[in-house]
Amino acid sequence: MSEYEVELFRRENFSRNRCEKCGKFFWSIEKREICGEPPCDEYRFIGNPPTKKALNLHEMREFYLSFFEKNSHKRIKRYPIVARWRNDTFFTIASISCFQPWVLNRTIEPPANPLVISQTCLRFNDIDNVGKTGRHLTLFEMMAHHAFNTNEKFVYFKDRTVELCHNLLLELGIPEEKILYIESEWSGGGNSGPCFEVIVEGVELATLVFMMYEDTPSGKREMDMQVVDTGYGLERFTWLSNATPNLYEAIFGDVLSRLKREVDIEENENVIGEYSRIAGMMNVENSTDLNLLRKKVSERLKIEVDELVRIIEPLENLYAICDHTRALMFMLNDGGIVPSNVKAGYFARLLARRTLRALKYLGLNMRLSEILKLQISYFKRDFPELNENKEDILELCDVEEEKYENTLLRGRKIIAKIENELRNNGIREISLNHLIHLYDSHGLTPDIVREFSNLRVNIPEDFYIRIARMHEQVEVDNEELEIDVGGIEPTTLLYYENQNKRKFKARIIKKVDNFIILDRTCFYPEGGGQEADHGSIDGLDVIDVKKIGNVVLHKISGNLNDVVESQEVNCEIDWGRRLQLMQHHTATHIINGAARRVLGNHSWQAGAHKSENLGRLDITHHSRLKREEIDRIEKLANRIVEENREIEIKFMPRDEAEKIYGFRIYQGGAVPGGEIRIVNIKGWDVEACGGLHLNSTKDVGGIKIINAKRIQDGVIRLEFKAGTALEKYLERRMEIIRMINADLPENELDDIANIFSVDIEKLPDTINRFRSELSLNKKKLHDLEEKIYEISGKRYEFGNKYEDIVIDSAESARKLFRDWKSSQKDLQRLKNELKNLLIREISDKFESGVERNNVKIVKKITSLLSVGELIEIARKSTPTNGLLIIASIDEDTANFVVYSNSNLNSLSIARKISKMVDGNAKGDKSLAIGWCSGKNIGSVIENGLREI
Ligand SMILES: [Zn+2]
Ligand SMILES: [Zn+2]
Questions:
Q1: Which of 195, 446, 596, 605 could cross-link to 186 by cystine, CB 3.0-4.6 Å?
Q2: What is the CA radius of gyration of the chain?
Q3: pLDDT for the residue numbered 277
Q4: Are residue 537 and residue 667 in the same domain, yes or no?
Q5: Closest ligand relative to 617 C-alpha
Q6: How many angstroms separate the alpha carbon of residue 182 from the centre of ligand 1?
Q7: What separation in Å is there between the alpha carbon of 561 and the centre of ligand 1?
C-alpha cells in the first residue's frame, strides 16, 4: 500500500493514475490520463466557474474558517506579517511560520489543536512577476488547518486531512470528478514529508503537507511530532469561484475598479484571459521567459507582440499597484517598520517606490497615501486594526513619497556624475552593478536611471527579485566568549528571585582564566543592552559578568592564585551602579511607551543600551524629531514616573503572553524559550525582557532626554539620563551656568550651546573666547580705521559698533555670536581697503622712485596684515625691475616680505634683514618671507630696513 493511499481514496474507489505527460502519480474519482497541473494541462475555469457561486475574498475566507470550525477546529487570529518572534526571518512567509520554532520544537503547546487560520504572508521572491503572470502576489493569505500529533495526543493525520479538504471543495460546489490529488514530496527548514497538491481545473488550490521527518546528518529520522501543514490560497479560491480572466480581477475589488476609472483603460477580457491562461502554464522567472510568454500569446491571439504589450502593460502596472499597496498597508500596520534602506524597512521602500514608478508610467496623478486610503477602506471590515492605525499608515506614506521626490531631485546629478565617469573610461552602458548601487545607495530605481541617462541601460526583468534576495538575510551576531562550560551546573540566578539583594554567600565552583564561576549569584551579566554588575567576591574586584549558556562567569581584576575552588565566599554588588542601571533600564521602557504614543504605532525599539552614565534607546521613525516632539515624549515619560505605577515582573508561557499582550512584547527582538519574562509597567508598556527593573516608576527619579539624533535611515537615537545620573547632570549644568553667569536661566543653556555648536561642557571656554575675540577685533578695527585715515583721510567708524556683552540669556548669546561674526566681516573689509590703498601708494612710489643699478627699491612698514596679504600687495604693486620690502608690525611681532622682480635676490636680502633683527627667513630668489619678535620690534625693523 502506498503511503499516499488514504482512507477516502479507498472508500470512494479513487483511481491512482500516472500522468502521461509528466509521469507523476495522482488520484481522482474517475480514471484520467493527465495530472491536470500546468504545464500538463491549462486553466479550464476562466469564464466557467466550477463552484456553486462567486464569493469575494471576505466571503471565501469566512466560508473556509467556519467550515473548519464546524469540523471542531479552533479559529486563530492571524499573526503579524513582521515575524517578531523569530530572529531568522523578517516576514511571515507561510502559516506554519507562526509555529516555528516554538511549537515544532515542542517548547510550547500550540495555541489550539487542531486549529484553523487565515494568515497574511509576505514573499518577495516573485516580485517582478507581480501583475504580469495573472497570479503572482507579494502579499497573500494562506488559509490553513493544522494538527500537531504527539505520542501523548493524536489529533489527525493523512486520512482526515484529505477528507476535510475534499469535503470543503464539495461544499463549495466543485464536482468531485474535477478534484485531483497529485503525490509529491515536501521539504523545508530541515523537515520533510509526503504531500498532495490539490488541483481543480488546472489551478493548484492547496498543498497538504504531512511533516513527519527530520533531516539529520545520518539521514531521515521520524520527528517526535507529526504535523499537518496545509496551505490553501485564499486568493486562488476566490479567483476560481469568480472565474475572472486573472486572479487580480477577482480580489482587488473597489480599489482596482476605482483606479481603472482614473486611467481609462482599454479592457480586452479575451486578451487578458488568454494571457493568464498561458502564463499559468509557464514558470516565468526571467526576461527570456516573459518574452516567450508574450510571443506565445500573440501567436495564439494572432496579434502583434507590440499590440499585445500596448494592451496589457497598463493593466500590469495597475495590478502591481494594487498588490504592492495592499502589502505595504499590512507592513506599516503590523508595527515597527518604517520605509528605509535597511532590514525590513528596505522592503517597505521597495514596494513604495515600485508603486510610485507604476503611477508615473500610467500618468496617474494620485498620491501613495490616497491609494492606501482606498485599500484601508476596502479591507477594514476584515482587518479593523488597519482603520485604527490609518493616520499613522497614511503619514508614513506621505513622508516616504516626499523622500522619493527629493531622491528624484538629487538623482539627475548622481546619474550624470556616474555617466561622466563611465564615458571617460569609454564605457557606453550602465551595468547591473551600477543599477544595484544606484538603487541601494541612492534609492534610484532602474527605470529612473534609464529616464535620466543617455547611456544604454539594460534592466533585467528579475531586478527586484535579485535585490530582494540580497537583503533577505537576517544578520545574527554571535559574539561569544570562548570558554568551555560543559559539565558545569547551571548557576542559580538570585537576581531574578530578588533584584534588591546586594549581599550574598556562594560557593566557588570553578576558576577559569580570570573568571570565577559560583553556584549562585546576584551579579547580573551583561544582556539585553544592560551592562553587567560590578562588585566584589571575597574582596576581589568583579569588573565584568558574562553568561554562557546557563552559567554565569565573573571576571576578576588581578590574579586568582589565592582562590580555592569549592570555598564559600562573601559577595557584594556595587549597589550604586546597579541602581543606576535599573533606573536607566526602566526609563527605557517608559520612554519607549511614550514615543509610541507621541509618534505613532510605527515607533518600535530598534536597539537599546543602559550604562551607568547614560541610557540610550533607538526607535523606528521616519524623520528627525522636532523639539516639540522630544518635549512631549519627555513630559509624558515624567508623568508616568510621577504616577508611581507598579512594575510587575513575571515568567509566563510564551503563548499566553502573546495572547494577552500581543506581539508588541518583542520590542527587544525574539526571545528564546517557552517561558518568557514579562516586564509590565502597569497600563503603560509590556515587554519581554530579561533585564533588571525597579519596583515602581517613581524610583526612576526623573527622566531627561538630552539628545535625539538620526543614526540610520528610519532610526532615531534618544539619549537620556535618569536617577542619580540625572541629578549629577543637572548639578553639572548648574555649575556650568555659574561659570558663565549665575543669572542665566537654566532652560536656555541648550539653546546657547546650539548657537555656538558646542556641547555645554565646552560652553564657558567658548563664550570667553568669543568675548575676548570680539574685544580684540574691536581694537583692530580702531587701528585699521586710524591707518586708513592716515593714508586716505577717509573716516570709518566700525569699531564703535561693538560693545562688551554680558551673557545672561540666549538672546545675549545670539548677539555675541552675531557681533563676533559681523566684526570679522568688518575687519576683512577694512583690511581689503588698506590693502588697496597700500597697493596704490607703493605703485606710485615705484613710479616716482629712482633706479640704482637698473633696480627700483621701495620699502614700506604697515600693520595688521598677514603674510598672505603682504605677498598679495607685493605681487600687485611691484613692476619689472622693482624690489619691494614690506613689513607688518603688530605689538611685539613682525612679518616681512621681500619680493623681487629684478636680478636682486630676495632671499639673501631677507636673510640680511633677519640677521639684523634677530629673526628668521626663508624663500627663494623672487620671494622671501621673514619673521621676528621682541620688545620695540617696530623701531628695530625700521632701523634694519634703513640699513639695506
Ligand atoms: Zn502531469
Ligand atoms: Zn528591557
A1: 195
A2: 39
A3: 83
A4: no
A5: 2
A6: 9
A7: 75
